[in-house]
Specification:
The protein is α/β, with parallel strands linked by helices. The chain folds into three domains: 47-288, Alpha-Beta Barrel (TIM Barrel); 402-627, Class I glutamine amidotransferase (GATase) domain (Rossmann fold); 633-731, Immunoglobulin-like (Sandwich). The chain has a nine-stranded mixed sheet with strand order 13-12-14-15-22-21-20-17-18, sandwiched between helices. Helix 1 crosses helix 7 (175-191), helix 4 packs parallel to helix 5 and helix 15 packs across helix 20 (613-627).
């Protein structure tokens, strides 16, 4: 089937005929049984992304066609109850008999079609199927024939791949992406029964490419030259231009695929966090589902990182389904052990924490040969666990009273080494405090979004434009509460420093002295307040390592003040010379009912670095006071538990992911320690007719019903123990 919109790409490829084609038969004119194709297409439904909830991915290596075991993979799909699969098809290497010139076939392909065999097998299991392509590099023959396809450095030199010789990085602003990859996608969709094409590393070279096509496009659109470096001159314009170009590229690909199969999609590998690099309107039109390519923990990443991926996705596009890609091997970016196996408990925890927070499971195996099968049981176990809880969770929506504002990362004009540590510290403190919370992107600060939450947390949202500050100001005026730290709102959206905080009037503070590094810093407990409860028999706690000098408005309460600097050596000199003076924490209550808390130091970053319990308590106290009421859901007990609240009409499901393990904050999880008893409480609605609500409660993973206690309009449930996951389902539907 042809469409006028494809004329340009097809014509461009007509001059590059494949060796086995006649002059009359070019790539876009491969034989097609039109009637058979139309019949197959009619059987497929456009809502397949919602039903594809457990994904099995096979990322083929070039030699796999010679020896891969089809039965093993189909048995694994069946045993894991996978209902969707992503299979390597083409791009850098084709695993099917392509007819497009310069679409490199695996040299082991022979007369086989491993991609086609896997597609047929998966369809036989009733699965959705997505074809994987990778456009980020080409082989030498394509590079020689089409030097215009290649990414180039600032001096115009083509960029050879950093990991493999004699292959070359491509540039997303050339016809390689807009025309060649378009035809690869169309060939796959014409010839195979697939629901989508999935593109890995689809942006080509991730840095600034100085190809002639890129230079010309940027100059034509902006009148400027490409930036000489990231965050340099013209960077702001570059970010906008890149967003527009990549958005157009996604549109070209998706429309080309849908022209052949209306239900099918072209979906570049992208979570919603990365989708902020694209025009929102185009994303909403062309992304029916997001895939987060954060495949596991690396180094000392926290065990809750998987769940954070789901939250971040909802922070930008709350209603768009998302799947979290999990590697069966360890994720160590420096050493790249891609053909290895992670500890079983690590793999299970990553998958389970992800789906508890709405990022449903996807596993990927690099290389179809399986010399080490230790990854199979944990994948099957985690996927089976999801299938068990899916009937309860599938129609519920994750909710929270607290949200962490997620600052823009892509295109940020202020690059900092510790930029994420502020968020990490607040995140860790909220997990430790068992506070259910969500993310909301700083690019989505609309009244509709903000009013879903009672407390917003700005760990260090440095760059906020005037419109964003106005949205937060209106939120507080309507009764919302803010907890903000360090340099939040001190810079505008372009990274220019303000004379005072953009939210100074809301927070009740004014800048006196810019940030400075300190050692041996302390804050003293001064005015009696909820924020300085629970610190025991002390008059001071550790402060920050980077602090701001501020003044507080007269109507503010200052429960902590900085102790002026004093030496940390010699030891005989380590004592304060003066009493507490400048504000160390500032609290306000607003006429509309909202509350604000401000910390003029790097509270999140220093908690993440030093993990001092007083800092975690300070964050938890601030959020509790800002909320101003009993939380709708509480979870109490020992251990490290990541909590998610799923809610629907007349029911709540509280997911407890047990992250308690000997290596919790250090490295891969080798063992999950069973939880001791946990007490879960859930607020019940007040029936306007005065009828007492009598809920049913079930522990979904344990598979048992429990008799709850109802006390003061709250359901109280005690879980005697739990392994990796338990879900408390409270149902008061009549």
């Amino acid at each position: 089937m042809r469409a006028e919109s494809d004329t340009a790409p097809e014509q461009a490829l007509a001059n590059d005929q494949a060796p086995d084609q006649t002059p009359e038969q070019t790539a876009d004119q491969a034989p097609v049984d039109e009637q058979v194709f139309v019949d197959a297409r009619a059987e497929r439904s456009p809502d397949w992304p919602d039903r594809a909830t457990r994904w099995a991915q096979i990322t083929l290596a070039e030699d796999d066609p010679e020896h891969f075991d089809l039965d093993f993979w189909l048995d694994l799909m069946r045993d894991s109850r996978s209902n969707a699969t992503c299979i390597s098809a083409g791009g850098y290497i084709a695993y099917y008999p392509t007819t497009i010139k310069y679409h490199y076939r695996s040299k082991y392909l022979g007369d086989t079609d491993p991609f086609g065999a896997l597609v047929d097998g998966a369809r036989g299991l009733g699965m959705s199927v997505m074809a994987r392509v990778d456009p980020h590099a080409v082989h030498a023959d394509a590079a020689d024939a089409h030097p215009d396809w290649l990414a180039r450095d600032i001096d115009g030199n083509p960029l050879e791949h950093w990991a493999h010789p004699d292959i070359w990085l491509t540039c997303a602003y050339t016809t390689y992406h807009s025309e060649f990859i378009t035809e690869v996608a169309r060939e796959i969709v014409r010839e195979y029964d697939v629901d989508a094409v999935f593109a890995n590393r689809w942006e080509g070279y991730y840095g600034i490419s100085y190809s002639e096509a890129a230079r010309r496009s940027f100059r034509d659109e902006t009148g400027l030259e490409l930036p000489a470096k990231e965050y340099g001159e013209n960077w702001h314009e570059y970010v906008g231009w890149r967003r527009r170009h990549l958005s157009r590229l996604v549109t070209i690909w998706d429309e080309a695929v849908r022209d052949l199969r209306p239900h099918a999609r072209f979906i570049p590998n992208l979570g919603a966090l990365g989708a902020r690099d694209l025009d929102r309107e185009q994303v909403e039109r062309h992304y029916p589902i997001f895939f987060i390519d954060k495949q596991g923990r690396s180094g000392t990443e926290a065990p809750w990182s998987a769940g954070r991926n789901g939250k971040r996705n909802r922070g930008v596009f709350p209603d768009r389904p998302v799947r979290l890609i999990t590697s069966v091997g360890p994720e160590h970016h420096q050493y790249r052990w891609k053909d290895s196996v992670a500890p079983a408990e690590e793999t299970k925890t990553w998958i389970v924490d992800g789906f508890a927070h709405g990022a449903l499971p996807w596993f990927t195996k690099f290389n179809a040969s399986v010399p080490d099968r230790r990854w199979v049981p944990p994948v099957v176990e985690a996927f089976t666990l999801h299938a068990q809880v899916e009937p309860v969770l599938e129609d519920l929506r994750i909710t929270a009273e607290v949200a962490l504002v997620d600052p823009t990362r892509a295109g940020q004009l202020r690059a900092g080494e510790k930029v994420s540590q502020h968020d990490d510290g607040f995140y860790q403190a909220l997990v430790e405090a068992r506070v259910p919370f969500e993310f909301v992107s700083d690019q989505a600060l609309t009244a509709d979004r903000l009013n879903q939450y009672k407390v917003l947390v700005l760990a260090n949202a440095e760059q906020l434009g005037d419109d964003q500050c106005a949205a937060l100001r209106a939120y507080v005026e309507q009764g919302g509460s803010l907890v903000a730290a360090y340099q939040s709102s001190l810079f505008d959206e372009r990274g220019e420093v303000r004379a005072d905080f953009g939210l100074s009037d809301v927070l009740g503070i004014h800048l006196v002295e810019p940030s400075r590094a300190v050692k041996n810093n302390y804050i003293a407990l001064t005015d009696e307040h909820r924020l300085n409860e629970g610190f025991g028999d002390t008059t001071r706690i550790i402060g920050g390592t980077e602090i701001l000098g501020i003044e507080a408005d007269p109507d503010a309460v200052v429960p902590f003040r900085f102790i002026p600097d004093f030496p940390d050596l010699p030891m005989e000199e380590v004592y304060p010379r003066k009493g507490p003076d400048r504000p160390g924490v500032v609290c306000r209550e607003h006429a509309g009912g909202g509350r604000t808390v401000y910390f003029p130091f790097n509270l999140g970053a220093i908690f993440w670095e030093a993990l001092q319990s007083d800092h975690g308590r300070l964050i938890a106290n601030a959020v509790a006071w800002a909320l101003g009421k009993d939380p709708d859901v509480t979870v109490e007990g020992a251990g490290l538990v990541d909590v998610a609240v799923h809610q629907g009409e007349g029911q709540v499901a509280v997911a407890l992911v047990n992250l308690t393990n000997p290596m919790a904050m250090r490295g891969p999880i080798r063992e999950t320690l069973p939880l001791p008893p946990q007490t879960v409480t859930v607020a019940l609605p007040t029936d306007p007719a005065g009828v007492e609500v009598r809920p049913k409660v079930r522990l979904v993973v344990a598979g048992v019903d429990v008799e709850p206690i109802v006390d003061n309009q709250r359901v109280v449930v005690t879980i005697p123990t739990a392994g990796l996951l338990e879900i408390v389902h409270v149902d008061w539907r009549q």
